[in-house]
Amino acid sequence: MAGLRGKVVLVDFWAYSCINCVRALPHVEHLYQTYKDKGLVVVGVHTPEFDFEANPANVRAAIQRLGITYPVAMDDHGGTWSAWHNQFWPAEYLIDQNGRLIGHHYGEGAYDVMENAIRSLLGMGLLPANAAATGGVPAAKETPELHLGSATQFGLDSSEVNDGGNGMHRFSAPGQPAANHYALNGRWEITDEYARLAGSQGDIKLRFKAAKVYVVASAAQPIALQVTVDGKPQPAVTVQGSRLYTLYDGVADGEHVLVLHVPQKGLQVYSFTFG
What we know:
Strands 9-10-15-12-14-11 form a six-stranded antiparallel barrel. The chain has a five-stranded mixed sheet with strand order 3-2-1-4-5, covered by helices on one side. The protein contains four helices and 15 strands. Strand 12 and strand 13 form a beta hairpin. By secondary structure, the chain is of the alpha+beta class.
């Protein structure tokens, strides 16, 4: 950071499979494009949440796909994350021209607050009162993030033949999962990070409250997922590679049941997030 003395610096921790980060990135890019010629330096720090996010090719592809034009440092082993004592995705840290940390923000939202702080350091006036933006911050009462890997598993509502933990399991899904839960059907391998379909086909049922549903998933070969919401067919979603995919893009919050049919083995599912 010593080489950046005299500049206002915004450090943004993110991961490309994190929907909260993806929703916040356009605002970071806006700050960079608006103030880069006025004394602002933006540095992205990509710290992976999942192992596949440590692949440089995956990160480069995500940077291009998401339209990021400011520099991004790869923090594959979390050394920078730990040095900053960071605990959140996304997280922003604002540093003044003398190298002092003067502010931070965790999560989405408050975009106008961060922009005004930057403008103040650059000797500019505050934004107009009507310029505050929420940027699509999700409602507080929607379904929380659901992880399928055993290390952080949350929300599983399925009976299984053998005991829980890592390894092969044959799951039987209930007629409808409990609210804010998911259920697996078929033969799945559970690992620390993900659930992988080991049988010839399988299903995931998801009962959620939100307008949108995203999945972090991976497949070595293209797999076309069949999606229904409340019994109504939705556009198929083809998983190829390791990243975040949109399963359902509704317009208003509400409680729904999504059924994801996986027609062939090999799909790895890491997490579901909502918006």
